[in-house]
Design a protein that fits this description.
mainly alpha; globular
Length: 434
């Protein structure tokens, strides 16, 4: 065991959080822009709901999850800063390339490229942040990092919708969001430093054996707290992000809104409700009593359970006013869980497993968010469109069914607490043994 060096000044640590939060924002913007222009893409390429779901969501997810694990393994033993910068340059370039595609197959190949690039973003970023802050402060730091989510959603909705309206082309939105990301990737290489791995634990990167993927999976499976936290994060992605994936299209069909109108309405909610809830969560988590992981899990469980009710009403109603009001209640929970959940999971993983553990978490979350939710909602919508005589009404029923999965996520947060004490002792022993 070696002695960890003194941590850097707070300003340097928070600069890293700021920059990586902006990386996260660009990542989310490049993902949300597809949801914003989903209906124009579907119409131009002559696709069904399930067909456009496979093109825009499933194609990205398959490569995101398959490439993400090997990248995370490399990140747990090499320079994470370089991985984040290179990944951002790649996915941003591929996003811009989406704006130049002229047919289904070109779009599919570019979308696959986006998925490969995005796989190298979040796992190394969160691992870097974890090595810049002690255990009790990680939930707060990662919640600030998670502000990139509402910012990116606003960029991918309101900003992208305005670009589409101005240029009268859905392709312009991809180009406008992709090109700046390439430049930002270079900035990361020039200004962000790689931290010492495990600096706040009893082990540093010089003394820690490298964990294998199999060892990481076995550890997460046997550590029940980590298992339930990961399950909660996976199901909440199925619930929250799965609903929001289709909401833009639903508003256009059900209420006759244009791409720009629906994007502006949702983007406003994403930015203000998402940012406000994330900031409020950060303030709460900064309180000394919230350094107790149990209280964080209980808070998340209660908020998700309560938010599931308005998530159902948002699609049950035929009133745009009521639907909008319900979304103002749902969106905050769909955003604020990110930082605390990441922190809870990272606290139950030894330093040599963090990037791989986060990649496994993102794998299951993105299977739920980008494969199961889009494909299942699309299939249900296509199946019901004939009997109901309306693809707006069929999409409404599909989204109502998906909304109820919020209760499932709340259950996992609540159940995770039962083994927190024993599992916390276990991860400390694993670090000390290394």
């Amino acid at each position: 065991m070696t002695v960890s060096p003194a941590p850097r000044l707070d300003s340097a640590r928070w600069y890293v959080v700021l920059v990586l939060g902006l990386v996260y924002a660009v990542n989310i913007a490049d993902r949300y822009v597809v949801s914003t222009v989903l209906e124009p893409i579907r119409i131009e390429f002559g696709l069904s709901d399930s067909g456009v779901a496979w093109l825009t969501g499933v194609a990205l997810a398959f490569f995101y999850i398959s490439v993400g694990l090997p990248i995370a393994k490399v990140a747990d033993r090499s320079n994470r800063r370089n991985i984040v910068a290179g990944a951002m340059i790649l996915w941003s370039a591929m996003t811009a390339l989406l704006g130049l595609t002229q047919n289904y197959w070109q779009f599919l190949l570019a979308r696959i490229g986006v998925g490969i690039g995005e796989a190298g973003g979040t796992p190394p970023s969160t691992s870097i942040i974890a090595d810049n802050f002690p255990r009790g402060r990680r939930a707060y730091a990662l919640t600030v990092y998670a502000l990139g989510l509402p910012l990116g959603a606003w960029m991918g909705s309101s900003l992208a919708g305005a670009i589409v309206e101005y240029f009268h082309s859905w392709r312009a939105a991809f180009i406008a969001l992709g090109v700046p990301g390439v430049i930002f990737g270079v900035l990361i290489l020039l200004t962000v430093r790689e931290p010492v791995r495990g600096r706040f634990e009893l082990v540093t990167e010089d003394s820690a054996p490298v964990a294998t993927f199999t060892e990481t999976c076995r550890y997460m499976w046997s550590t029940r707290s980590a298992w339930h936290i990961n399950a909660a994060g996976t199901v909440i992605c199925l619930w929250g992000w799965g609903l929001l994936w289709w909401t833009q299209t639903y508003l256009e069909r059900e209420y006759g809104l244009s791409t720009a109108e629906a994007g502006a309405r949702l983007g406003t909610i994403y930015f203000w409700a998402g940012s406000g809830a994330t900031i409020a969560t950060g303030v709460i988590l900064a309180m000394p009593q919230m350094q107790d992981a149990k209280r964080v899990a209980w808070l998340l469980s209660g908020l998700v359970a309560l938010s599931t009710i308005p998530s159902f009403i948002a699609y049950y109603t035929h009133s745009l006013t009521i639907a909008t009001a319900m979304l103002w209640l749902v969106v905050p929970t769909a955003y604020l869980y990110v930082g605390p959940t990441m922190a809870l999971l990272l606290n139950f993983l030894p330093p040599t497993m963090r990037a791989q553990g986060m990649a496994i978490s993102l794998l299951t979350a993105n299977v739920a968010n980008l494969i199961i939710a889009p494909a299942a909602v699309g299939w249900i919508s296509d199946t019901l469109a004939g009997p109901l005589g309306s693809n707006a009404e069929s999409l409404r029923y599909a989204l109502m069914a998906l909304s109820l999965t919020g209760f499932w996520a709340a259950y996992h947060y609540f159940t995770a607490v039962r083994t927190f004490a024993a599992d916390d002792a276990r991860v400390q022993m694993a670090s000390a043994a290394a």
